Amino acid sequence: MGARLNQRFMILAILAVVIAVLPFLFPSSYYFRVASLVWVSALAAIGLNILMGQAGQVSLGHAAFFGIGAYAVAIGPTHLGIPPWAALLIGAALSAVLAYLVGRPILRLKGHYLAIATLGLGVLVALVISTESRWTGGPDGMPVERLTLFGWRVSGSYTWYWVTGALLLVGTWIALNLDETPTGRAFRALHDSEVAAQVVGVDVARFKLQAFVIAAVYASIAGSALAFMNGFINPDQAGFLHSVELVTIVVLGGLGSVVGSIIGAAVLVTLPQALTIFAEYEHLLLGLIIIVSMIFMRNGIVPSLSGLLLRRARS
Amino acid sequence: MAEFLQFLISGLTVGAVYALVAMGFTLIYNASGVVNFAQGEFVMLGGMVTVFVSAAGVPLPLAAVIAVVAAVVIGLLLHRLAIEPARGASAVTLIIITIGASILLRGIAAIVFDKQFHKLPGFTGEAPIDILGAAVQPQSFWVLGGTAVVVVALYVFLEHTLLGKAVLATAANRLAARLVGINTTTIMALAFGGSAAIGAIAGILVTPITLTNYDVGTLLALKGFAAAMLGGMGNPLGAVVGGLLLGLLEAFGAGYLSSTYKDAFAFLVILIVLFAAPQGLFGRRAVERV
Fold first, then answer.
1. Other Cβ atoms within 10 Å of A244 Cβ, number
2. Minimum-distance CB partner of B225 among A108, A116, A294
3. If you average pLDDT over residues B1-8, what whole number do you get?
4. Per-residue pLDDT tens digits for B198-211
5. Looking at the whole model, is its pTM more than 0.95?
């Protein structure tokens, strides 16, 4: 227990140091922007990893919640006069409620059926967003009012680097702690064998639903953060491709590994950025990256590497 | 009545395409357990290759054959380069690989061809035929007839040829199939090639009606997958029924309820069906071994 506490603290400390030190290596504000994108994607992926890695349930429509968070902070202040920070909370609450209501019937499904149900949910949300153009600006997207907190106008790549970095730290801290609670242990029991978990008295349906709601809230907050940061939002953020990217980040980093989600996000966000010189080949490269990383890193980067290190240490 | 008939025929036409995509899904799923999200890309390739080859002066029937061959080659490559190396990976990993493959194929198509919409001429003219007041494009009959031919051909192949029976055996139990001397790797390659051909045929048949571009595969794959699920994954007959049902639902939903949410009906129905009958309409109940 003590060793685990220590390990958790170490992970947080290393992450904090990385976030604090990176700016010294960045030559331009562009790098701050890319890093913020990594933090935001990592936040969403950590949430999804609680569902996929810990509770063992797949979601192919998770960008829906990302989109709800993003459009909440776009629509709330613009159309309804809600303060931006409150819109973020409302978005998270909406995502939680939707996840709760839809999760109960959906999470009874298994395997491919669960995949298609979550996929359907994602496509539906994306369709509503791109169709209700009176509210959402349709396929062209809409501008997002700047976030103001206690009179402080949060804007600029530098500021958002720190804000998203702080969000990621909090998200990581919660996810790491969750691992050690009875809830986290119930999640892992679910992942190993649902039947066995049920036999030892885990309320399977309730815990799956909890994991789904938590994952939805993570994605929603990440979506809100991205919308504030960009000052603009379009339906792609809620679309199928984005859902696939999130799942790829989780699997690439390593199922069940919080650190893995951060590293997975770093790889999948920065690699296409680094290859932007081939703008025309963007999709081609994204597809290649996904295929190659899934074939050669199918257990995830972090579990593969730590397995390797453990074997080295033993021999 | 004329309106009803109009929706019925357009629903069946679109449904026939969904049915072909769903059959492609089922064929690959049965032989290999892989859910192939690149299935829609075969449809796109069928349409796009035909458009560009026939634009280069090749007669349409020959261009169509070239398109089917091209799709089969891509299907075999997909199996050899992306699915075979990932043998033994988890279902989610395999799904992500095929999604990656579909993104890749779309990217290649955008470069090799272009991003414009393209049309093929109707095989037997464009003048609508009047059936009890409903205007029907002659191409609709090509789509329905073509689908029927593919369904019958697949049925005969699976039930009445040795190779087809080997496919069924592999689907039933891969290990047992290998033990009786069936080369399951060849069977899997065959499934990918066959399913690519079915997809390409669907693309060629429907392009005169719906147009095609590099991006049409995504939604088709999602809806074909939905249709396969609706019928119960792994059941070829279910795939056909699921596809036709989905097409009809969309046509009537768009006609009588809301045309802006045409694409939503498919997914709404899937959610409702899965809530009510978690194994699809014709699926078997899976029992988990502990």
1. 24
2. A116
3. 87
4. 999 999 999 998 88
5. no
